[in-house]
Amino acid sequence: MKITVFGATGGVGREVVRQALDAGHEVTAVVRDPARLDVPPHDRLLVAVVADLTDEDALVPVLAGREAVVSALGPSSNKQARLTPVAGPALRAIVSAMDRAGVSRLSAVSAAPLGPDAPGDGALMRVMVYPLLRRLLRDVYADLAVMEAAIGASRARWTVVRPPRLLDRPRTGAYRRALDANVPGGKVIARADVADALLTTLTDPATAGHALGIAA
Q: What per-residue confidence (pLDDT) applies to 131?
């Protein structure tokens, strides 16, 4: 499969690029600074520099001829999301450029606090943990909510992946999944497993048009 990856220099994005190459895919990694792409050169890896991810005309060439898109974009902090939202503006341009380029399949990372409370979660999670996170990181989640709305309003065959707190751990492939829900008791997951979920949903028609909660 020919895949374009946005957010390729981030923790999840680098894992997406590595795992996609290991699986035999052709990857176009979209970056602003190629020096930050911590992935060895590969004959199936094309690095495309795009300075402004809201520039739809600049996005069409990196999408033309591809079969799927993975977005690992997201704000790095609440302050950044408040001052310069990342995911929402970029995905509005990306889904429009996808339509122009004739690419329909998209998977994008979001966050568990945007999903519904999981059945079976205790009062601590429902009453304290998630409400506190939603207040402390309200600008991050506002940016991701705009992103999800843009994706949902698009003509793409999309899947939004909603993980809890991310950890730098090896891929297990044994994480739990919940369609249109959060995973009960889901507190953490490895970035490598988030990358795995982003890639595997591309060929899973059951997840198209849905949000997927994942957790270790």
A: 73
